[in-house]
Design a protein that fits this description.
This protein is of the alpha+beta class. The protein has one domain: Pnp Oxidase, Chain A, CATH 2.30.110. The chain contains four helices and ten strands; from the N terminus they run βαββββαβααββββ. Strands 1, 2, 3, 4, 5, 6, 9 and 10 form an eight-stranded antiparallel β-sheet that branches. A two-stranded antiparallel sheet has the order 7-8. The model has no long low-confidence stretch (mean pLDDT about 95).
């Protein structure tokens, strides 16, 4: 079964479950070269009168290079049976291994960027804003505990330009 495009108003999913518990893949690049990473932090909402996502990527992640170098990236959401594949994509680095092959995922290219054929939903996202999150801006200093390696996140806000569902 292929994908169909829907409007944002038709979107029915719980981001707290889909992102925080089931995870998602953040992917950027093209058919020649791309990378992906698992994420369990992010959000969905409205900003500058646009439907947007927020994504957070640590400075040390290889995928960050691809997100920074490209206008678009995707968020791919999967059925629970792909949890092991998402775990592989979150623990192995694409710098030195073909984690997509090890995870058993099939790259899918849409709108000049990469996603995955096994996904149940793909959000194609266009970057609007990004900013490094320095620890001195943490309102609650206890959050420093999330960064024992001092590998702070960059926040990305991106417009959802296409939603593909099964």
């Amino acid at each position: 079964m292929g994908f169909k495009e829907i409007k944002a108003e038709e979107l029915r999913f719980n981001p707290f479950t889909a992102i925080g518990k089931e995870w998602m893949l953040i992917t950027a690049g093209n058919a020649e070269k791309f990378n992906t990473m698992t994420a369990s932090w992010g959000g969905v909402g409205v900003f500058w009168n646009k439907n947007v996502v927020t994504a957070y990527i640590r400075t040390t992640r290889y995928t960050k290079e691809f997100v920074d170098a490209n206008e678009l990236f995707t968020l791919s959401f999967f059925d629970k049976k792909y949890k092991k594949a998402l775990n592989i994509c979150g623990t192995l680095s694409g710098r030195d291994t073909d984690k997509v092959a090890q995870a058993g995922l099939t790259p899918l290219f849409t709108d000049g960027t990469a996603a995955f054929g096994e996904a149940d939903m793909i959000l194609v996202c266009k970057k609007l804003y990004h900013d490094f999150m320095p620890p001195e801006n943490f309102a609650d200093k206890k959050n420093e505990a999330w960064y024992p390696e001092k590998d702070y996140h960059t926040l990305y806000i991106a417009e959802i330009v296409k939603i593909l569902v099964r």
